[in-house]
Amino acid sequence: MKQAHCIYQNDDHRWLAIARDASKPGYLIDTNEYLVMDGEQALLCDPGGIEIFPAVFSALSAECDPTKLAGIFASHQDPDIISSLALWLEFKPDLKCYTSWLWQSFLPHFGGSESTFVPIPDPGMTIRLGSLELQAIPAHYLHSSGNHHLYDPKAKILFSGDVGAALLPPDQGGLYVEDFSRHIRHAEGFHKRWMGSDRAKRDWCERVSRLEIDMMVPQHGAIYQGPDVQRFINWFAALEVGVLRG
Amino acid sequence: MNAPEKLKKPPRSASELTCIVRVNEEIKSIVATAFRINLMALNAIFLAKRAGNAALGFGVLSNELRRFAQDLTHHMASLRDMTSGSVGSVTGVVQQQRNSAILLQAIRLSGDGVPGVREARKRGAQRLAEQHGRLRALDLRLRAAVEETQQLVELGGVLARSAKIEAAYGGGFSPALMQVSTDFAEVIAQIKRSLEVLGKERLVKD
Ligand SMILES: [Fe+2]
Ligand SMILES: [Fe+2]
């Protein structure tokens, strides 16, 4: 059963990671959902697929009042990211969904109407949540052609979507990366195959290197902390991507 | 928990969607039969012309049967329009039921007292009731239209019987005319059966 873990707290500014669903059927990829809260408002990053909605909803409700949910941030259009949209709207019809302008007319196939979507332009934008100014950071072609990450400059947390994802074996179920070189083996195949553009990758590495990041939180796998963040960026910068095999 | 197992059970509306498919298939078969009557009537008109004075009455009836086939085709076209619209309504119900079921499951997992869930369930139930209401109205219209078509087909039956009587006066053409009018009667009986099936279908189960 999924559980919400508090990974950052400063007064009523909080980040929750909803991770590790042992009861989920094996044919579904495991995902992490993140909730950013500031005071009376909350934003859910990559809320996940239809099948896991009950687990995510109950984990979230255990830690916060779900009526405080003001918006959803969808890093891109994949089903494991946002196919649960209609269900969140079923619960709260006035939710806003922030996503790349590229997917603005595609995501309504999962649910929502014209007023649901707030298109994020290619260079990114500021998303206000309570007193926070969250930054949608461009991550196009990593892997989706319209893709953003979310940076919280106050908490120094970067939500990195599929970048940093690792498909971990069941015996490595920890929430945080403990041994980088052991961990990264489970990320290599995924990044080589899923990340399609070397140029986009280099751009992203440069862009996020300029940010102050204490924690990089991906949509699959474990959370990178402290020096592991830069370790990941360096590793990714050197990795050959867009390869079918090897 | 075994959430996906529970969700695999087809919602009630899945059978409503199946029902619409059956209705459409029945309509298609009636349309095909109406087309056959049209051709049969054309042949009968030619036959009656060849038989000349001996088959004047039969010729008139053949013309009437041809008109009947055309009316029937129109009736079926409007029935088809109705059901094609209903696919949208049924799909709406299916989606709403699925969403409500998953939300209910989420609420159960979360335990009572989670803020906002009562309102969400109420909204869902309301939307479902509206969609069901639309389907019910459509169902009534469909049934009324089927009844109207049944009356038309009664008239077709009378025409076919009269054609049989006229065939008896067809002189040398009598066996051929008799054969044609028997075919008419059979085809109309077939349409009657299809309409009976159609009349029993319900888009909404109460
Ligand atoms: Fe993805
Ligand atoms: Fe993903």
TrEMBL record, chain A:
Keywords, in A-Z order? Hydrolase
InterPro entries, A to Z: Metallo-B-lactamas, ODP_dom, RibonucZ/Hydroxyglut_hydro
Q: Which residues form the Metallo-beta-lactamase domain?
A: 23-220
Q: Which domain of life is it from?
A: Bacteria
One of its Pfam families is ODP
A single Gene Ontology MF term assigned here is: hydrolase activity
Which protein is depicted?
A: MBL fold metallo-hydrolase
State the species of origin.
Answer: Zoogloea ramigera
UniProtKB/TrEMBL annotation, chain B:
Concerning Gene3D superfamilies, the annotation shows: Methyl-accepting chemotaxis protein
This protein's UniProt keywords: Transducer
Q: Name one GO molecular function term.
A: transmembrane signaling receptor activity
Methyl-accepting transducer domain location:
22-70
Record's GO cellular component terms: membrane
For biological process, the GO terms are: chemotaxis; signal transduction
InterPro entries named among the record's database cross-references:
Chemotax_Me-accpt_rcpt (IPR004090), MCPsignal_dom (IPR004089)
Q: Cross-referenced PROSITE patterns, in alphabetical order?
A: CHEMOTAXIS_TRANSDUC_2 (PS50111)
Protein name as annotated: Methyl-accepting transducer domain-containing protein
